[in-house]
Amino acid sequence: MISFRLSARDYERLREFRVMRGARSISELARAAVSELIGSLSRPSDEALETRVNELEGQLRMLALELKKIKQAE
Predict the structure, then answer these.
(1) What's the rounded Cα separation, in Å, for the pair 62 and 17?
(2) Which among 6, 60, 61, 58 is positioned nearest to 32, based on CA atoms?
């Protein structure tokens, strides 16, 4: 078992990211992320590039969510 602390803001962002990624729980998301991280150590460069593109797409989705929140607050 692994345990770590997050700020309330980071936890909320993680919950939103979980929904965007379609994970059933934060634990499932964390397991997938750790598996992907460990697996990336032995992946060929093409797969590493694909992984990075997927990460960037996730970050763009998070940014779009943040922008949407800002627009709604106006």
Answers:
(1) 7
(2) 58
